[in-house]
Specification:
The protein is an all-alpha fold and about 70 residues long. Helix content is about 80%, strand content about 0%. It contains four helices and no strands.
Amino acid sequence: MFEWLSHMENTKPLALVIFFVTFVGILLYVFSGRKRAERLESYKNIPFLDDEEGASDRAGKVADKDQDNG
């Protein structure tokens, strides 16, 4: 078997098959599974979920820090 792999003309098609199978496996993993798709869809809105309470807390911390500095 190792002698067969030592010839360059045999390793190129083998590498092509290995990479193609890996690529198809990744595609199946990414596009299958309803739970994963729903979870990834929910992640797209994370930057817009900044509520007023969190923003006011951060503003208060910045004001306190400014008062401490002078």
